[in-house]
Fold these 4 entries.
Entry 1:
Amino acid sequence: MLTESTSNLLIDDLEAPPLTLKKLAWKRFTRHKMAMVGGLFLILLILYSFGGSLFVEEKYANLTNPPIRLSPPSLQHPFGTDTVGRDVLARTIYGGQISMIIGILAVIIETSLGILIGAVAGYYGGKIDSLLMRFTEAMLNIPEIFLLIVMAKFFGNKIPNLTLLGRTFSGSVVVIVVIIGLTSWMYLARIVRAEFLSIKENDFILAAKATGTSNGEIIIRHILPNSIAPIIVSATLGVANAILAEAYISFLGLGVQPPTATWGNMLDGANNYIESAPWLWFFPGLLILLTVLSINFLGDGLRDAIDPHSRAI
């Protein structure tokens, strides 16, 4: 037998307005504990990298002081100093900015190419689909890291240093962003193609075609918005993959070149001091680890939140 309080709760649930898709997704996301933890850590890391520049000048981060080279962590230098006496804390702040910017810009290129190729292949089908998918499969068969190393080696010194907003960036930043973006779009293209193949057969798409709606308008206004969920998840996880890819090739000495610091090329500088000066690799390595884990947890939460088949509320 229902008690009065239980009856009141049931009545309130029946009278409550239904949740919109956005509210339902947000409710699911907030119940994903690891995603919330990942989001919190990611906010803190962004504040550390971009907010830290309000307290530490880039000039100080690049200031060499040989007499204090390889000094261990202390009150004056909490993360110690590197091989030429530069403050590691200051360099992780500015290196984090570049690593995150590389991740975001590379994902913009990756997402744009993946959506374009996947949408055209999935919507038009036929020979266009076959041609684009064979090209995609050919790209997938080339090891990404190998391609990154070869292209970074060939193009690394072709672009001069750039000055933007009062900061000097190595031209290799542009090269790395473009290379990562051009070698990471294939999986997203296949996801988008599958979504387009499924959605284009729905009644509302057939009705739009019957009313004379142009192909471009159908793709942009009708199919793409209904495919946005996996694209958002893929783009989120792509940022983490891009940061790792930059760290890989920078660790090999082929990534972003000085004077620009990144977490990846800081690890490269610590290669010969793994035992004698562990702070050189520990702090940038820890920041890369926390950033990648945070983004992956966030991506998992987004995937569960916007999955239309999820029953978690």
Entry 2:
Amino acid sequence: MRALITGASGMLGRDMAKEFCRRGFEVVTLDRGGLDITDLACVNRAFKEHGPHLAVNCAGFTKVDRAESQRREAFLVNGLGPRNLALACGETGAALVQISTDYVFDGRLDRPYEVYDVPGPVNVYGASKLWGERAVLGLLRASYIIRTGWLFGLGGENFVSAMISLGREGKPVQVVDDQFGCPTFTEDLARAVSDLAQTGCYGIYHITNQNATTWFKFAGAIFDRSKLVVDLIPCRTRDTGRAASRPGFSVLDPFPLQETIGYLLPRWEDALWRYLSKKGELQA
């Protein structure tokens, strides 16, 4: 089996490539320099050259605030790109894994979002990812839409690494305490995606580490596990002055993930411990 990973130089793409290699797949890794997913002719050439049985799209425009002023670029990468991949998969008989986001929801529910709850993004980033979801679902039956969020991993800068850097500066750190979600380790996500992609049970899935928290409490756990003494200050989202709105509650209900692959991801506290241990940041 041959898997083509787009966005392969990114944090998630690297772990996805490692996981599929570990499972015996022949893996083709392409970053933006090797494959511009916004160019349909380029995508078709890549599929003709490599002949993948499965494509995993980890490419994305992920700068949430920047998307507000770069709307066209966000929709090209997050919307048109998945459409092009779906078209190429349909022509060649390949299946597609499309990585989406918890930000397709508006955050107004008082319970975790289920896979068929009606999306309603509150920012351009979320809207562009939803466009990509719908393009894939409308064109390709053999597709898996993976909604996730709050990613951290060994292969790139993320919230955990940013907090450790800030904590070492010895200055007060202010973090929002009114956004709820589930931090997700990219190694755990890659494992679940690779299992799911071999089931043939196509559709929408919510995959995150378990146990909801806030960015503030997540930061507190990072400092505690790293033994960094930090003056951590909670604040409200509206006081941060960010360009893009954020959903206040984007916790995702995993049903029917366990019923499909036999397990759920571990709690984020366990994932954080493993991440810090591998980074050499865990303090006894």
Entry 3:
Amino acid sequence: MSRIDAAFGRMREERRVGLVTYVTAGDPALARTADILRALDRAGADVIEVGVPFSDPLADGPVIQRACERALAGGATLDRILEVIREARPSVRAPIVLFSYANPIYRMGFATFAARAAAAGVDGLLTLDIPVEEAGPIRAALLDHGLDPIYLLSPTTTPARARQAGELGRGFLYLISRAGVTGARDSLAAGLPAMAARVREASRLPLAVGFGLSRPEHVRAVADVADAAVVGSALVSVIADAGDTPDLVPRVEHYVRWLRGDGTGGGLPGGPGGDTLQEREC
């Protein structure tokens, strides 16, 4: 059983919605990324997504775009990110999923990447710009090294394509809750229950919902339609606000505990509301 399967198994046994957290590797500095991963794990993230910064993003909103710019300016590369994950892995229980565009992996070579990622302790890969219909070569390399290929579904995904993603995917499916780019919102998409129901009919894989989630009530609401909630841009905003300071790790851990409902208050100054968090990503 993979670490991802085990994580979703624990969620089912404990009858709770899971929390998947996304961070951009190398932001605010590559030297801090291992500490951030450990903080996410301590705070109770069930799955940790590590974004590989890319210069020409398609799906990322302004918060993650700026995080990628900072990471690239600081020298973050796929090679160095894999080394950071290797360093952090022994002290991180949660599965680690790389979240990347195709180009950095293509440049390394699919087989070389899969071997190095597995050796570093990566558990799965989600590539935003490789559609499931064209994922055969990289999927084969991932499976050869015990890594889970994970696929994105959107509000416009057809039932047939959702079935294909469910048949070819491993670990979980990632449902984008709304069309457009990443970014925190005040509320969940109105059509989310119907979207999730369509995916449930097409696949038995666990379902994680992302894009726009930023608050504990969003995480709780996802429990009605999916197995896990994905929080990305809002967490990246917390990291951006803290910067490369001694407050960085405590604020990351504080925010994730708040998302999980641990009663510790919000991740931003001003307490549980994080009053300006949603307004920054529009």
Entry 4:
Amino acid sequence: MTEDRNDEESLFEAPPMGEQERMVEAVLFASGEPVTLSDMAARMPHGSDPAEALVHLKRRYEGRGVQVVKVGDAWAIRTASDLGFLMQKESVETRKLSRAAIETLSIIAYHQPVTRAEIEEIRGVSVSRGTVDLLIEQEWIRFGRRRMTPGRPVTFVVTQEFLDHFGLESARDLPGLKELRSAGLLESRPPPGLMPGPDSDDEDEAEEGQSELFED
């Protein structure tokens, strides 16, 4: 009887951490999109700890050509940032976001959550429905919570796909004005009133956000 009980308990034992690390690696490698801890836990055997496995896996990939990175509230395996130039396309992409779309996306990224009226106030011109629809279709912005103000206007925020596309863990990692200029990504002044990201401590960064960083 005791032997049967031990066999039954062994069925619910979590695999060794080394094996859990391999499982997490396999899930991230096979997934085309970042995977959350809850999704990993749902796929792994009962009692597994994907968070701890990620710590070990992330450490193992340090200094390698690919790295384990956090994207929003999910995780992914991505090319090391200093090797991104190896992945550049040889052909020139001719289709880019319009100036209106770039400005709108920039404002949402640096001001989120932000309403359409607030976007228009910052830009100084109206925002067409087509511009917003395009950014939603690209899955770079989504609807946020409604404001508890008259009319309860909907807000807009950037998506996890946006963060993943630009290699950001969160919106707090958006580049400042100096970084954009040093990288040659800032060619013109931003729309009036565009404010810096939440961690900025440079007065000049009040102008940032308008750049080719958001061109596709």
